[in-house]
Amino acid sequence: MIMNKKMMIGVVAGVILNLGFLLGGVQSIRFELESGHTKCIAEDIKADSMTVGKYSVVNPNDGYPIPDSHKVTVRVTSAYGNNYHYADLVDSGQFAFPAAEAGDYMACFWVVYHKPPLTLTIDLDWKTGVAAKDWSNVAKKGQVDVSF
């Protein structure tokens, strides 16, 4: 079967659109944070949706431990101010919770002031809804033993 150019464009557009829906609840970013400052990232989450996240400070000196000057404080809160995660002076961490209420959830990162100022690089991977599901534990066809 020969596909013309319009059909091929339609197929490609459909694939891209479907991928957009599947990946809509995934936010993976790398950002910089200057010491003495705060940076917050918001995610609009539906009520009763599962949320998982992990974050880490990028080590400026590969092969050596992360220095104490590169520790961050992290807080995740709901739109109503309810706390879901708090970690003080860490270089990495993770959080997971079912969202009790719908709205913008905020993950805020801050670093104490240093003189001279430092700039930290932070990786954040935040998933919600279907994207937060651990699909590796879902039974595949042929793995289910049915007995009566």
Automatic annotation (TrEMBL):
What keywords are assigned to this protein? Membrane, Signal, Transmembrane, Transmembrane helix
The answer to keyword Secreted applying to this record is no
Kindly give the membrane topology term recorded for this protein: Single-pass type I membrane protein
Family annotation (InterPro entries): Emp24-like, GOLD_dom
Question: What residue stretches are annotated with the GOLD domain?
Answer: 38-148
Keyword NAD among record annotations:
no
Q: Where in the cell is it found?
A: Membrane
**Family annotation (PROSITE patterns):** GOLD
The principal localisation class reads membrane
Q: Name one GO cellular component term.
A: membrane
Report the family membership: Belongs to the EMP24/GP25L family.
Full protein name: Transmembrane emp24 domain-containing protein p24delta9
What species is given as this protein's source?
Vitis vinifera (Grape)
Q: Which gene encodes it?
A: VvCHDh000916_2
